[in-house]
Specification:
With 287 residues, this protein is an alpha+beta fold. It folds into two domains: 7-77, Phosphorylase Kinase, domain 1 (2-Layer Sandwich), CATH 3.30.200.20; 82-286, Aminoglycoside phosphotransferase (APH), C-terminal lobe (Aminoglycoside 3'-phosphotransferase, Chain: A, domain 2, Alpha-Beta Complex). Helices cover 47% and strands 16% of the residues. It has nine helices and ten strands. It has helices at residues 39-52, 84-90, 95-110, 121-131, 137-148, 186-198, 208-232, 237-254, 257-275, and strands at 12-15, 19-25, 28-33, 62-68, 71-77, 82-83, 155-157, 166-169, 172-175, 182-184. The N and C termini lie far apart (52 Å).
């Protein structure tokens, strides 16, 4: 029988927007959700990691799913290294090189056909947008129509792909935090990554100075990422803009408070642009 795990006795390694990471010893960490709304996501993330073992994606190994006073937590491999975001902050001159590596890694992930057990991206989008609390019925119909016109797809989408979740260790990159993984159109994941770099939320524990630096670098990175990803895996501005709109509407539900207002304003701008007759291929520039 496993001994009772006491969090207060474990060193806290990192705090994220959705989970805290504790040192569990023997090359392992404990990933504990911070909000009750993320409990099911932790359980789901464990199942995703089990799937990743079979498809060759460089991700941490998982060992067990445990309960801590009714809170689910994952015991998983400790990946010790520097994140790509930290590497860029230390030396901004390497942005182009790192973005190239990031794009290639993302392309590898998106080339995997997801198992049927992984949540459909469009199902998740519909659920989140319904919960986001948009009060204008016209906006809600606009979002529903846009989502309905987008393709389903069976590509493996990470759901939170950004430089902070790419860790350099043992001579390779490891992609962490798979709690938001879905099965869908690859452009949806590209659009989400673009938003994550363009609209940088301030997570707990990050100073205003670091956040300002992240926003500056994020804007540069978002544009460079989009250019390189489009070259490696072509897609149209029309398709990209529609997915940026949908992903922004999703994050209006589950994103951090520091980003929700900006995303809601972006959704409103896209709706007004549509009413004015502006084609979708220009919408993403309104972010």
């Amino acid at each position: 029988m496993r001994e009772k795990i006491e969090l207060k006795k474990l060193p806290l390694l990192a705090r994220g927007g959705q989970a805290d990471i504790y040192d569990y010893g023997n090359g392992k960490v404990l990933r504990v959700p911070r909000r009750e709304m993320d409990f099911d996501r932790i359980r789901y993330e464990y199942d995703v990691y089990v799937f990743l073992k079979s498809c060759g994606v460089a991700a941490p190994r998982v060992y067990d799913l445990v309960m801590l006073d009714n809170v689910p937590a994952i015991i998983m491999q400790k990946v010790s290294g520097m994140s790509m975001m930290e590497m860029i902050r230390q030396n901004p001159l390497v942005i182009r090189q790192r973005i190239g590596e990031m794009v290639r890694l993302h392309h590898t992930v998106l080339s995997v056909t997801a198992t049927q057990a992984i949540t459909r991206e469009k199902d998740k989008a519909a659920y989140c947008m319904n919960k986001a609390g948009f009060s204008d019925d016209d906006v809600k119909r606009f979002l529903s129509k846009t989502l309905g016109e987008l393709p389903e797809g069976d590509d493996l989408c990470h759901g939170d792909f950004h430089p902070g979740n790419i860790i350099s260790a043992d001579g390779t990159y490891h992609l962490i935090d798979w709690s938001a993984a879905t099965r869908g159109d690859f452009v949806s994941d590209i659009a989400h990554t673009y938003i994550l770099m363009k609209v940088v939320p301030r997570v707990p524990g990050i100073s205003p100075f670091i956040h300002a630096l992240q926003r500056f670098l994020g804007n540069l990175m978002a544009n460079a990422y989009l250019k390189r990803m489009r070259h490696l895996r072509p897609f149209t501005n029309d398709m990209f803009s529609r997915w940026v709109l949908i992903k922004a509407a999703q994050r209006s539900f589950y994103g951090l408070p520091s980003e929700k207002k900006r995303l809601a304003r972006f959704v409103a701008r896209c709706y007004r642009a549509s009413v004015a007759g502006n084609k979708p291929d220009t919408w993403f520039r309104l972010l």
